[in-house]
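ok here's the first one, seq then struct tokens
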Amino acid sequence: MTTNTHNPQEEFEAAMTRSLERSPELPPLAIPADFAARVVASLPQQRTARPAVRVGRIAAIVAMVVLAIVLFVLAPHASPSFASFTFDIELIVLAQLGAIAYWLSTKAARS
């Protein structure tokens, strides 16, 4: 004697499997031939690229010129002792000139 039991879980899994294995019925996709041309025509016109402005380099060169002028103005008044204020300023100007020269040389090596 065979009993036919009704199992809703098995029916649900069978229905799920059937629906997953069925391929979708979609109409074929058609892209118009002039689609790309219409997209390009609708885009705004590209601006021409501007050249890069090297403001930092120009400012560093101007600063070096100004520091060199300050160095030549201070040189006759500086006595080589650390007690002299003009000598101290002259050393600071020399350090700044060296730092700017180093920065310009490393920046030129990277470019």
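and now the second one, same deal
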Amino acid sequence: MNFEQPTNDEPESATGSNTDDTTTPVTRQRWKLTSWLLMLARRTHLYAGLFLLPWVVLYGVTGAMFNHQSLFPRVQFQPVPVDVVRATSMTEFPAAGELANQVIEAIRSANPDAKIEVLTGSEPEFTNSLMFEVQQGDEKKVVHINPVTNDTEIATIPPEDFRPDRLLSDTRNIELNPNPQDTAQEAAASIFKDSGIEVHGAPKPFVWTKLNFLVSIDGEPARVTYVLKDGHVDIFKYDGEPDMPLRGFFLRLHTSHGQPPTWNGRMYWSLFVDAMAIAMVTWSLTGLLMWWQIKRTRRIGFVVLAASFGTAAMMYFVMQNFYASNVL
């Protein structure tokens, strides 16, 4: 695709190709400005697309990995024959509607004065498969049973050999005096009070704030994680590798968000996520502008846009209804 030369479908005012001597200097200047702005939009679209390439691939692949556990799996899945499942007590497992009626009867027994009925149009639904695990040597076996179809498979989870060795294993909790959590809690109470917010009792911790740092223990590098809330401490051998499998690392990249209080890798990642968000919006807007400049594509473009917005709106209400009527 040529991003330098305008196509024959572009308006003459955008290209300035059919100007003549009768045009005024002001008009010619406007044509030049319009042509320059369109060229800028094309260049922006081009380079935004190049910038987005690795990020779109990352988010596309990891999004599919979230949606399908069998994609680039660390876990191995083995289907269980139907006859094996039918020979078990799963034949007595209640359907969603039957189980809902049993739950309603139990609630009625506990609340005899309440009138409880299933709403018309509401269908009881299971949120996910039934899963049970057993340990077999170093491996973990997890059976997944579909409560609707009884389709069953067994997942084999290999040992977590990616986890570093724990050091000083007898040290799991420490007490500091003064306690930094108490200091911050006291400050939070004062901030609430000075802000006109009435406080009854001590403010409760909202998140698990941790302190991470590297040390040397008997000449061996180690990572120390201290939890401010309860004084828990983890001391692991440091080998420069994340304590998660490669698949988990890529999924963590997909979900990593927010800004830490320190400039580190996570903060830089956050900046690139913001840059990607801006580039995606810009890419969409410049794409719309470039589409509009090609007259012969406008009609089919309107059809595609209508289908896209219609599908997005439909899925918005479908998912809104799902999360309103289901708790995962």
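notes on #2: The CA atoms of residues 236 and 306 lie 55 Å apart. The chain has eight helices and seven strands.
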